[in-house]
Amino acid sequence: MFSKNNPSFLEKILFLPFVLLIRLISPIFYFRVSPLKVARIGHLVGEVEIFLCNKKVSDQSLMTIDFFYIRKNEKICNQFLFSKVKKKIIIIPSSIGKIIYSINTSLNKLFNSKKKFFYDLNLHYSSKFLKFNNQQIFLTEKEIEIGKKMAQKINLMPEDKYVCLICRDPAYMKNKFPEVNYEYHSFRNNNIDDFLLASNYITERGYKVIRIGNVVEKAFKSQNSKIIDYSSSEYVNDFLDIYLPSQCEFIITTATGIDEVAAVNRKTFVTAHYAPLGHLEYRVNKNFLIFKKYFCKNKNRNLTVSEIFDTEGAFYEKNEYFENNQIELIKNTPEEILDVTKDALNYLEGKKVNYDKNIQKKFWDIYYSKRRKSNKSYYDEDINCIINDNYLRKNINLIK
């Protein structure tokens, strides 16, 4: 009955009276119809959590009712996660939702509407609406017990404390989206072996390390029985993909989709190999971070944080932008990753995290000031992040 792709002219004509009625009654009942991203775990869990938390604290003077539809041609990334999301929001058939959304966007332009009649789902976190005690998407006690039993198959016992490790590589995107060339994003890919030193140290402190990720490029090889490569095991499934990062002590990440499960569960973060620098988001719990340096071939030196923003390099999202501007991203060393991991362990165990407050302040003064001028859609607030002290001291020229 309905077209599979963009709404046809006839479909718009047929639905126009209904949409006009929706807009007419909006002073009393405000109906919003919005597209929902379901193909990537990060967007699905993070954007819905943000929407739910934001709605809890937003102005409720209007009776606002939200409907969502799955964007065209998108396959659901994780059936278990989707089942959790469906219990929190109203999802309508895509064939209907896309028509209403298309008509509303056209009418918004025509009438310069103050109301959008849709909600802009995004991954911008803020302390204004995200708190420790207002998590919306979470596992039930029964699901946690099921997870504990399933996790024993990978040698993770109920009494074990563990840390999740996720390292972005090209395998997932190639496997899930073979029709799309994501090579332009390869500057975000990294080598799992860079995390072996830190992983061994974590086990010495009494934890297990669980490498997560649904599809990976290569195995995480180790003789350490407390380092478990779940991603390369036969037990990978949609449920454990969500259970493991939701229940970990903290997560080590290179900033990739599935770490949003940990963010939604208010977990502490260790972030390494981070780029681009300008995209840092607020975390409810601490984010201990080191980032890739921007080596400028023309200047034959690393760019300062100010220069990274001044050249717009803080927001480059394609390889070609770095290449065209003669910038090479320098990855963090295993030793640097170990240092920032120690920060998170000390924080988690209630021990002192050593850092120079003056050096931190100088970095963040520059960062916030420069990002504020960029006019990007980030919340202007403290993002609850600490740059590793040794990393900043060794690279003090970055904050000149």
Word description of this protein:
With 400 residues, this protein is an alpha/beta fold. It has two domains: 9-111, no CATH class; 141-399, 3-Layer(aba) Sandwich (Rossmann fold), CATH 3.40.50. The chain is built from 14 helices and 13 strands. The strands form three sheets. It has a seven-stranded parallel beta sheet.
Distance between the termini: 63 Å
User: What fraction of residues sit in β-strands?
Assistant: 5-15%
Number of strands: 13
Query: What is the makeup of the main sheet?
Result: 7 strands, parallel
CATH architecture tag of the largest domain: 3-Layer(aba) Sandwich
Number of helices: 14
How many structural domains does the protein architecture include? Answer: 2
At a glance:
By secondary structure, the chain is an alpha/beta fold. It folds into two domains: 9-111, no CATH class; 141-399, Rossmann fold, CATH 3.40.50.
Secondary structure layout:
Elements (H helix, E strand, L loop, with lengths): L8 H16 L4 E8 L4 H17 L5 E8 L8 H8 L3 E2 L2 H18 L29 H11 L10 E5 L4 H6 L19 H9 L3 E4 L15 E3 L8 H10 L2 E4 L5 H6 L3 E7 L12 E5 L1 E4 L4 E2 L2 H6 L8 H6 L2 E4 L3 H15 L8 H17 L11 E3 L1 H6 L6
